[in-house]
Amino acid sequence: MSERDPYAHLKENAWRESDALDARLASGEIDEETWHREWQDLLVPAYLQAETPWQQSGKSGSHDDWVYARALVAHAIDRDGTFLDVGCANGYLIECLPGWTHFDVEPYGLDLSRELASLARERLPRWSDRIWTGNVLRWQPPQRFTYVRTGLDYVPRHRRRELVERCLGWCDRVVIGVFGEHETERTTEDLLRGWGFEVAGRSERAHRRKPGMEHRVLWVDS
User: Fold this and answer.
1) Total-model pTM
2) Would 74 disulfide with which of 39, 101, 166, 199, CB 3.0-4.6 Å?
3) CA of 192: how far to CAs of 61, 195, 197, in Å?
4) What is the mean pLDDT of the chain?
5) Burial of 97 by CB count in 10 Å (0-12 exposed, 13-18 middle, 19+ buried)?
């Protein structure tokens, strides 16, 4: 994988800020704790100030846009089981997921931000005891899960293989996404294979507003 994605300028998310943080970490200007703290300083205020639950979970646009992109996660569900959402934010994905699949899914959440995890507990009081705060690279789960969903960009670039390995140790299937890539690129899939992981499945859908871009989800089985 190249250090820079040529299609990054087409994507959602603060990709310029992410690249800058990775560069500062690589140069030794900041440590990993600072990387995580500054990333949270960028994202958390934006999420907390958002007006809709899907915007509080990182998706711009309408509710239909949210479903169109994020419901791809449900395509990785092929049996009943437990589902941990790493980076759950306000918990909107785990709230919606049971309605996107005919399988019985018990949702759980983990977020680095105390503020966002607290918001998720307030929004979903019936699940408040299964929404945790912690850094995925250090957190120890209290149980094993059927599925764990995560995003590779939740950790510094050099920790991403470790992130997948850790999550695989907790579950039967790691779900990666939703992320954006150009239709001609298989960057994330190639990266996973380069790390020695076999991609067990994928789902993708054309971006409605960005020609050539796709919403994608991949999954890897333990």
Assistant:
1) 0.91
2) 101
3) 30, 5, 5
4) 91
5) buried
| Averaged pLDDT for residues 98-120 | 97
For residues 42-53, give the mean pLDDT: 90
Calculate helix-pair angle for 32-49, 114-123, nearest 10 degrees.
40
The Cα 86–Cα 149 span in angstroms is: 6
Length, in residues, of the chain: 222
Alpha-carbon distance 174 to 183, whole Å?
23
Q: Which of 4, 7, 103, 123 is nearest to 56 (CA)?
A: 123
Q: Phi-psi category of 185—alpha, beta or left, where left has phi over 0 and alpha has psi -120 to 50? A: beta
Predicted local distance difference test score (pLDDT) of residue 3? 41
- Kindly tell me if the per-residue pLDDT of 100 is higher than 70: yes
| Residue-range definition of the domain harbouring residue 165 | 8-221
Q: How far apart are CA 191 and CA 189, in angstroms?
A: 5
Asked if residue 204 belongs to a domain, the reply is: yes
d(CA 52, CA 103): 27
pLDDT > 90? residue 14: no
Domain at 151, CATH number: 3.40.50.150
Separation of alpha carbons 162 and 61, rounded Å: 32
- Identity (one letter) of the amino acid at 52? T
The two structure tokens encoding residue 38: 């500054």
Q: How far is CA 69 from the centre of its chain?
A: 13
State the total domains in the chain: 1
Q: Which two tokens stand for residue 217?
A: 């989800």
Both tokens of 166, joined, read 């850790």
Instruction: Look at residues 75, 45, 49, 50 and name the one whose alpha carbon lies nearest to residue 63.
Output: 50
